[in-house]
Design goal:
β6 (126-137) and β7 form a beta hairpin. It is built from one helix and eight strands, in the order αββββββββ. By secondary structure, it is mainly β. The longest helix is centred in the N-terminal third of the chain and has 22 residues, at 3-24. The chain is elongated, with a radius of gyration of 23 Å.
Length: 164
């Protein structure tokens, strides 16, 4: 093979090695929408139980690189209506949650969630809802990080300021 042909093949191989994973990773986002409801959730700082109805839109993509590493990325957007069971007071909230999973020689999974609720009827305070999850396992299979959100919703919700 002549020198020019060898250089062209080498250049093409290097380009494919460096750029290929980036092109492959540009899989389109998928979108899923759904709703769910929870009833009778006691929120300590509100002093009552609430019924919650939430509408969710999730955008996500997943792909595998040529080296065999799996990646998943998501972005959740949600709107919720919280209604006090005793008072009938209503709060509307918007929330956002992002998450990733990277699975190769090591494993990382993490997500966060944030929501801010504002009173629209009644005299209740605004409140926020925050949570975090992170799991990291190194290539030797050793657990390096584990952060779990609290199981009790009252450890995730904080009322902010007085009522209206």
């Amino acid at each position: 093979m002549n020198l020019h042909k060898q250089l062209a093949i080498l250049t093409a191989a290097m380009f494919a090695t460096l750029i290929g994973p980036l092109v492959f990773a540009k899989t389109p986002f998928q979108t899923v929408e759904f709703s769910f409801s929870d009833e009778g959730i006691y929120i300590g700082c509100l002093g009552e139980s609430v019924d919650v109805h939430t509408s969710v839109t999730v955008r996500y993509r997943e792909f595998e690189t040529p080296s065999g590493n799996y990646h998943y990325v998501d972005d959740w957007r949600f709107d919720s209506e919280w209604v006090g069971v005793l008072t009938g007071w209503t709060w509307l909230s918007k929330g956002h949650s992002t998450g990733v999973i990277n699975d190769g020689s090591a494993y990382v999974e993490q997500w966060t969630g944030h929501e801010m609720a504002f009173p629209v009827t009644g005299d209740g305070p605004k409140f926020r809802y925050n949570q975090l999850f992170k799991l990291t396992v190194n290539a030797k299979g050793e657990l390096k990080v584990l952060k779990l959100p609290p199981e009790d919703i009252n450890d995730l919700i904080r009322c902010l300021g007085p009522g209206n």
